Amino acid sequence: MSVLADRTYRRLFAAQVVALFGTGLTTVALGLLAYDLAGVGAGAVLGGILAVKMVANVVIAPVATALADRLPRRTLLVGLDLVRCAVVLALPWVDQVWQVVVLVTVSQVAAAAFTPTLQAVIPLILTAERDYTRALTLSRLAYDLEGVLSPVLAAALLTVVSFSGLFVGTALGFLASAALVVTLTLPAHAHERAPLLERTLAGTRVYLRTPRLRAQLGLNLAAAAAGAMVLVNTVVVVRGGLGHGNASVAIALGVFGAGSMVAALLLPRVLDRRPDRQVMTCAGVALVVLMLVGAGLFHLVSDPTGRWVTLLGLWVALGVAYSAVLTPVGRLIRASAAPGDLPALFAAQYALSHAEWLVTYLLAGLLGSVFSPAATLACLAVVAVGGVVFGVRAWREGVELEHVHADLPEDDPHLVDATHGTDGWRHSHRYLIDRAHRRWPTARA
C-alpha cells in the first residue's frame, strides 16, 4: 500500500476504482434493460451487446497503447470518462435494442482506450520496478473488489430505485474519475519513433512467442466460457426460470464475484508454495468439472428453492476457480517482459483475452436462447475442455534458459558473458522476447 503515498498515482488509482464501480453497475443494469426489451430472449440480446463490447476491446486496446505517447494523456483520459458518462445517461431513454447496441459501442470504444492508456501512464509515475509491481497488484485487487461489491451495491440501490437509477450511479462514477484525473500533472515522456503498426503489434508478438503466455490463450478461454455463462444467462435463469426479481439477479452476480474475491485473497499463500502452472491448470480443470456437475444438477433438480440454492453454490465455486485461473496472469506478464514493454504486453493480454470473451459471449447468448441452462452449461464446458488442453500442452517451464545467438555482432553488449562456439554465441539468462531474442528456444527447459 506504500505506493499510494505518491499523490499522482493515488489519484489515478482512485479514478480507476470509481470508474470500475460505474462499469459494474452498468453490467447489472444492462442485463435488466435487455430483459425489459426482449423478455426471455434477453440472453441473446445481452450476449450480442457484450460481444460488441469485446470487438471494441480487441480492436482499440493495442492501438490506444501505441498512440498513448503521441497524445496528451490527461486530456485523453478525461475526455474518455466524459464520453462514457454521456452514453450511460442516454441509456435509460432508449426503447430499441439497436439503440442500446450503438450506445454501448461508443461507450466501449472509450473504455477500451481508457484502460491501456491508464496502464501506460503508471510506469512513468512509479519508475521503480518494485513500486510498479505493487501498483499492478492493487489494480488486480480493484477488479476483484468491483466484481464483489458492484452487484451488492446494485442490489442495495434496486431496493430504493428502478434499474434506470443504476445508470445514474454509473455516470457519477465516470464524472468522479474525470474530476480526479483533471487535477493531475502527468510526467512528460519521450515519443516512440517506431512506426505505429510496429508499436501496435509489439505486445501481441511478444505474447504469442512466449510459451507460458501463449498457454494463457487456452486457460483464458476456459475462464471466459464459465464467466460468459454467468454474465449472459444469470438474468434469464433467475428471472425467467426461477421467477425471482431484479435484486436476485444482482445477488447471483455478487455471489460469483464473492467466490472470485475469496480465491484472490487465498492465492498469495498458495502461490508461495505451488508454481503458477500447477495452480492455474488445476483451476482450469476445476472449472470444467464444476460446469459439467452444474449441468447435471440443473437437469436433475426441479424444485425452485433447490435450483436457486444450486445456482448460488455453483456460481460461488465457479468464481473461485475463475479467479484462480486469471489472477496470476499478471505475475507471468511481469516475468515475461522488461519494464518498458509491460504496457504493450498488458494491452495484448487485454485484447486477446477479450477476443475470447467475444466468442464465449456470443456462444452463451445463442445457446441460452435455444437450449436449457443445463445444456448451455454443458456446451460451454466442452469449450473449456479445449482451452485447458491447449493451455497444458503449450506451457513450458523455465525462466533462465541456455540459448545461442548466431545473428548478433561480436561487440553487441548483450554478448558480454557469452562464450563462442561453432554454432554462435552461447549463454544463459532470464529469457524474454525482445530485440535480441525474436523466438523462444526450441529445446524444452
Automatic annotation (TrEMBL):
It is a multi-pass membrane protein. It holds the Pfam family MFS_1. Keywords: Cell membrane, Membrane, Transmembrane, Transmembrane helix. The chain crosses the membrane at residues 12-35, 41-64, 100-126, 147-166, 217-241, 247-267, 279-302, 308-330, 342-364, 370-392. It comes from the Bacteria. It is found in: Cell membrane. This is Arabinose efflux permease, MFS family. It comes from Actinokineospora diospyrosa. The lineage of its organism: Bacteria, Bacillati, Actinomycetota, Actinomycetes, Pseudonocardiales.
